[in-house]
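Z., the sequence and structure:
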Amino acid sequence: MENEAYSKIVKLCGMEVAEVREQLSDLLIAQDKVQFDINGAFGEVVIRLSSEDENAREKIKSLIRELKVRFGSSIFTTKKNISLEQTIVDLLKEQKMTVSTVESCTGGLISARLTDVPGASEVFSQGFVTYSDRAKRKMVGVKKSTLKKYTAVSEQAAKEMAKGGAFMAEADACVSVTGYAGPDGGENGDPVGLVYIGCCVHDKVYVEEYHFVGDRASVRRQAVIHALTLLRKSILENYEI
């Protein structure tokens, strides 16, 4: 009688399939008894390890331990039905924190992902869609001088959006996104796909710059996933046991 296949999954955020494959190249060559299926897109990757070997459980558990060493906090779960946003909501609940969002090019997609999670009302404070410069000024207090000097798609604007969103919503954390999703870039020559993501946690602000590739929908999807990734990372860096 043949052994039944045993499998486990590992989910990562903020990485691409090619990057994961490169970091696992030695394991992919060495493991002839365990199959690696690596899939994903837009910054989320799922690794499925499976084997029919008689020692499958031990081998796969050992490999998962190795993956945790290699990828660290980029791994957000090893459970099939847990999403990235679910882990964020759970973290916020554990830390008794609330979160708000300030979105420009993503138009509310981040808040939609968060509020899709049952029980998110315990931690989700408020979402702002600040598509225009005027909305950025009026709703979350981005300075007119900032917009004039640096434009709405800038590190400075993303920082003020995150800080202002946290302040206006009286939230412990806030994630912001501003960028050019297409079809056009900035009047100053900034390209389509340029996106700044900010995150404010307990008044500490992080900002990351991205250059996404793809059509309008692809850029927006990538921005959402990387915004959630930065939010999770920022919460973990301020995690209190």
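The two ends are 48 Å apart (CA to CA). The mean pLDDT is 96.

Let me know what you think.
H.
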